[in-house]
Every structure is written in C-alpha cells, then in structure tokens.
Amino acid sequence: MDTFTAYKLSKGNEWIIPFLEKKKYFNFNNNPELVRWMKLSRFIVELHQLFEIYLWNYSQLANGLYLNVDGRINRILDNGTNQSQLIRVNGYVMNCVSSAVNFLKSVEKYCKHEARAGKKAIFSFAAEFLEFLHAKFYGDLHYALAYVLRNYSQHGQLIISIHNDDGEHNRVCLDMFQLLNAELVSINDDTREKLEYIYDSLRDIEEGPIRLFLAQFLSSLHLNVCSLYEDFLSRLDPYVLESKERVETLLEESHEKILSTSDLPYFIILLEENHDRDIAHFIIEPPDKSVALLQHMKKEAGEKLLDAKEKLNMTNQCFKHVVCSPESL
Fold first, then answer.
1. Is residue 183 classed as helix, strand or coil in its secondary structure?
2. pTM (predicted TM-score)
C-alpha cells in the first residue's frame, strides 16, 4: 500500500509539465528495464509490508496470550472489553493465522502472475519457486491446518476450543473432531486427507477426544512462514542486484533525467502516453535504497528463521507426541 506513485496529466498536476516540456523523462513503452525496476522496487516494499503485518499479529499473540505448553491459560491480556476467554483467545489466534496464510498466499499469487507474464515478468524464477512452494507447503500438515483455520475465521466460525479436563484448568486447543465436522466451511479432498491423517494418527496412540495443543501448531506455522520468506528473498537477491546494475548504467547515460524538487529530493519520470489519458509514473528512490531495504529484509528473515527453529525445538521437547508430515502427503 502507498507504493504506487503515478499522476494523471490533468488539473492539479501542472507542476509536472515543465519537466516534460524539457524532455526530462523516459518513455514508458520504450524503457522496459526501468518499468521492471519500478515494479520490482514496489514489490519489495509490499512484500516487506505483508511480512511485517504477520510479525505484528504474531507479536500481539505472543504478548497477549500466556499459555503453558499443555494449553493451560495463565493470562490473557484484554483491551477493556471484558470478553470471555474464548473470545479473546480466538481474537488473537484468528488474526495471527489469517495474516500468516494471507502472506503465504500473496507470495504464491505473485509468482503465478509472474509465471504467466513470460518476457514481461519482473523476475524469471517464479515458475521454479511455485513448484518449490507447492511441494513444501501443500504437503505440510500444519499449513493445511492453517489454511482451514483461515477459512473458518473468514466464513463464520471460531477456530480455538477451550476445554476443562481436570476440573481446575482451562486448556486451549484445536479440537480436530469439531474442525472436521463444521457445517459452514467446506474442506477440499486434499486438505481433508491431511486433517484426517492428524486425527487418525493421534487416535491410534491416545484415547479420548483428539485435541492439538496450540503452542506446537503456532510454532510450526511460524517456522513455515519465516522459512518461505527467507528462501524467497535468497532467490530474489541476485536478480535485484543484476537489475540494479542495468538500471544504474542506463541512468548514468541519462543523468540529466534524474530530477528533484523541494518536496521530492529524487525522482525519475516514466511517461505513459495513452491518447487523452497520459500518465506520469514516478520512481522516487535511488536503486541503492531498494537494495538496502532488501538486505535489511534478508537479515531480518534470517534472524526470525533462527529464532523460529529454536522455539519449535523447545516446544517439541515438551510434548509426548509430535505430528509430522509424512512423505506420502
């Protein structure tokens, strides 16, 4: 959001006209490298925004919901609503799970868009990454469960159950029987197969209701999100550096078209001429700044991935049974 910088050449934008009259612009249709860079730098910012949204929701959950690993509630922060524990827990978890799945789906959709773009694609590894994404995440039980939970939260049902086993402690969990038998949410065959695998695996080794502790699921999902983000940025990095070098060479040859005003210390105009609807697209930051942001994103992703691995290992050590994805799924 707020990454699209373009102006119609109409009333209110007359300040652009003097630059155009002096030919201090690049033609949009004749400079595909600059257009690609404009879209690429925008995508880098938007990708970072989506990951930060997920981290914000994850942090809200981690700081607002205090649980033992066995699901016992220690404390749930409230914002003065005085809602029940069930509502507060679901509020935290639904926001976190939804933002996680939305982030993963956004990467997938962008790669699909790029894979269809052919020679106009911003980066060329989209089709290859899609194969990796489908193999790694669509075979993962925790992602399958997260996807179902996201759909539950969007289509009118809560996703977290609170039960009382010993008459003393409320425990937060994912009740697999309730999730598999909801009436308002449809589950496709492939996802249902994965959820039934979880249910059947635990039913074979435990008696009574099949409930998953929330801590192990959230730690696994967090690792999935951080892992994909770090992998994607690693693949994106060399392409961005190569594209940056080509753009800088082009700009060196036309340095007079790098502009500035008191309000915009750096900008480049790409004029898209469409008969009576001309549009001036702006690149408002030097290429070095986009590269610096990407390097920051890579550093952050590496740190979050390492932390996620440690948290999952610590969480798994506390459980008698840990559900893992079989090779066949």
1. coil
2. 0.88
